[in-house]
Amino acid sequence: MAASGEPKKKSELRVFESLDELATDLAEYIAQLSEISVKERGCFTIALSGGSLISLMGKLCEAPYNKTVDWTKWYVFWADERAVAKNHVDSNYKQTKDGFLSKVSILNSHVYSINDNVTVEDAAGEYEFAIRQMVKIRIIGVSEINDCPKFDLILLSMGPDGHVASLFPQHPALEQKEEWVTYITNSPKPPPERITFTLPVINSASNVALVATGEDKAMAVHLAIADATDGLDASSSPARMIQPTDGKLVWFIDKPAASVLDAGNSDSPRVE
Ligand SMILES: O=C1O[C@H](COP(=O)(O)O)[C@@H](O)[C@H](O)[C@H]1O
Asked: 43-84, pLDDT tens digit by residue?
């Protein structure tokens, strides 16, 4: 990992033999970024997603990280949320609470969940407002390029259709350039109503990690990473649109997810 002050490589592809190895490296990556941010800025702002990601973060709740990470300096946000009650099985908050937050000592007051008591439109507006307040007091950094929030780390899990956060292929939400947080009411994956960070926010982060595991994601990984993808229009692969402007992207994938890349069906990956 590039230490503070060193030039950062823009993107990197890490392929693992097993889920256990991936989870081990992911925990170390997050812990290192947390340490660097706390040293440089006094806090660590992280935005999470749902899906398979949370269980892959499990090793962070174990030794040594449960003791060595400075959890009191963490500020937790969500890159997307489904419009369901917080105790619903589909809630990204519930999944994160059960699988991660309840096992580490992050302060409750540093956990910024999305309001489940209002319409998705209002919830998106409220969440953007909350983030603006955190930018104003410089807990969340700010991009010098576009005034967007600059999260220390945004963690995304890619779906088999190439979606990230709740940004789905061909969806107009991919075009949203003005708002930081938007909403959709027609998600192709249930539940239909969701709140999501927009691409400008994701691409303004200091670090973005994209996780994809399993053979059912192999083609989406190929479309997102391969150099040449004949005839592909950009919005058919939201994951391909993740290109941090002034930050670093790291892909964490397992062998099955890398299988189409490995099969020699692709040109050299766009990432190192
Ligand atoms: O619906 C969602 O799906 C993606 C990917 O989920 P996975 O189970 O295929 O890993 C997830 O990252 C996103 O946050 C979520 O709302």
From this structure: 999 999 999 999 999 999 999 999 999 999 999 999 999 999
pTM: 0.94
Tokens representing residue 94 in the block: 């519930």
DSSP strands (E only) in 85-179: 141-142, 149-150, 153-157
Domain boundaries, the chain: 11-262
Q: How far is the CA of 76 from the centre of ligand 1 (A)?
A: 17
H-run or E-run covering 40: helix 19-41
**DSSP letter assigned to residue 226:** B
Largest Cα–Cα separation, the chain: 49
Q: CA separation (Å) from 40 to 5, 26, 159, 261? A: 11, 21, 33, 37
Strands of the chain, DSSP E: 11-16, 44-48, 74-78, 80-82, 141-142, 149-150, 153-157, 181-184, 194-197, 207-212, 248-254
Q: How far is the CA of 39 from the centre of ligand 1 (A)?
A: 31
- Measured between alpha carbons, how far is 28 from 22 in angstroms, rounded to an integer? 10
Coil, strand, or helix at residue 252?
strand
Retrieve residue 226's tokens.
Answer: 């391969």
How far is ligand 1, taken at its centre, from the CA of residue 267, in Å? 27
Q: How far apart are CA 41 and CA 74, in angstroms?
A: 11
Closest C-alpha to ligand 1, atom 15: 50
Tell me if ipTM is over 0.90.
yes
The pairing of strands 153-157 and 80-82 is unpaired
- Please give the class, per CATH, of domain 11-262: alpha beta
Rg (the chain; Cα; Å): 17
